Amino acid sequence: MRFYFLVALIIGTFAGVSAVPAANGAIIDGKSDVDGVAYHYLLAQGGPQTVVLLHGWGTTSYMWRHVMPELAAKGYTVLAPDLRGLGDTAKPLAGYDKASIAEDVRKLVSNLGIGPSVNLVGHDMGGMVVYAYAAKHPNDVKTLAILDAPLPGIEPWDELIQGPRTWHFRFHSVRDVPEMLIAGRELEYLKWFHNAEGVNSRAFDNEADEVYGRSYAQPGALRAGFEYYRAFPKDVEANRLFSIDKLQMPVLAMSGVGGMGLEYGNHIRHVAKNVRGVVVEGSGHWIPEEQPAAVTKALIEFLPAPM
Q1: Does residue 30 lie within any of the structural domains?
Q2: Which residue in 100, 122, 177, 284 could disulfide with 258, CB within 3.0 to 4.6 Å?
Q3: Is 68 a domain residue?
Q4: C-alpha span between 48 and 221 (Å, rounded)
């Protein structure tokens, strides 16, 4: 009964209806000041094991709507924030390199009193952020899961960014032009982009499209989102220093068969010693949306017990 209560409550919260904070794992839909940036977050308060879920570009914390209730029902404390500049988080002009955003998330964890020891899960840009977090603060990270996110500066990054699959890395990095071309067409662009990078065409229903379209149509949201790409040169520099010392904690490297595929585990082994590779069938890049049950199963098998 508690599980179905959580599912209904979380889906309502993700759809834009604020849940009332309550006992028994109810979702807190809140905001917290992180060095002058108002961070929007969803929090399910559970046991002592905290799992932090970070989304990437083209989505918001809404992407965890199928995964978060399952983890919360198992007894984990689960935090899913909107990253700097995205969703309902404030949109400052600067600070979009992944090491800076990792510090944002760490301070948010501290503000909410659910750290310092956490389990990090990141997809896309969120995967780049959790790597920076773990590299900078390895003693605060129990486990790390990176989902279909190439790490800037880490082999085969130089080859990857020249290929046709990553055309958008170059386009989104150009100053002002993508904003000029996409403004007013956010919904259409994201619908096309989600389908182009996905395998499961049923993953993004009308509600998901509308949620993301509205989010990226907010003032400053397109610019903020593209700043993640414009920060890649700084990320490359940071990651090449971070990778001198390989991560020691357990790392789950998850990719979609239509995403980064079978070689993804080898990519993450350049920065970590203890890597478990998982390739998800029936999924492209958007694994938590295309195959949420497979993501949840892999996480539950990988994470420490919730209590």
Answers
A1: no
A2: 284
A3: no
A4: 34
Tell me, yes or no, whether 57 lies in a domain. Answer: no
> Which residues, 6 or more positions from 213, have their beta carbon under 8 angstroms from its beta carbon?
186, 187, 190, 191
Here the tokens at position 196 are: 């182009």
DSSP summary character for residue 165: G
- Positions marked catalytic: 124, 229, 285
Q: What is the pLDDT along the chain (307 residues), one digit of tens a residue?
A: 333 334 444 444 554 433 333 334 588 999 999 999 999 999 999 999 999 999 999 999 999 999 999 999 999 999 999 999 999 999 999 999 999 999 999 999 999 999 999 999 999 999 999 999 999 999 999 999 999 999 999 999 999 999 999 999 999 999 999 999 999 999 999 999 999 999 998 999 999 999 999 999 999 999 999 999 999 999 999 999 999 999 999 999 999 999 999 999 999 999 999 999 999 999 999 999 999 999 999 999 999 999 8
Three-class DSSP category at 280: strand
* Token pair listed for 84: 């700097």
Q: Is the pTM of this model over 0.90?
A: yes
Residue 89 gets which letter from DSSP? Answer: S
- Identify whether 260 is part of a domain: yes
- CA distances (Å), 101 to each of 83, 180, 229, 241, 278, in order? 8, 26, 13, 17, 26
Q: Which domain holds residue 263?
A: 83-302
* Residues pairing with 252 in the sheet: 145, 276
Distance CA 259, CA 279 (A): 9
**H or E stretch including 54?**
strand 50-54
The structural domain count of the chain equals 1
Give the whole-angstrom CA distance, residue 26 versus residue 1.
13
In contact, 60 and 196? CB cutoff 8 Å: no
Closest CA to 239 of 250, 251, 247, 248: 247
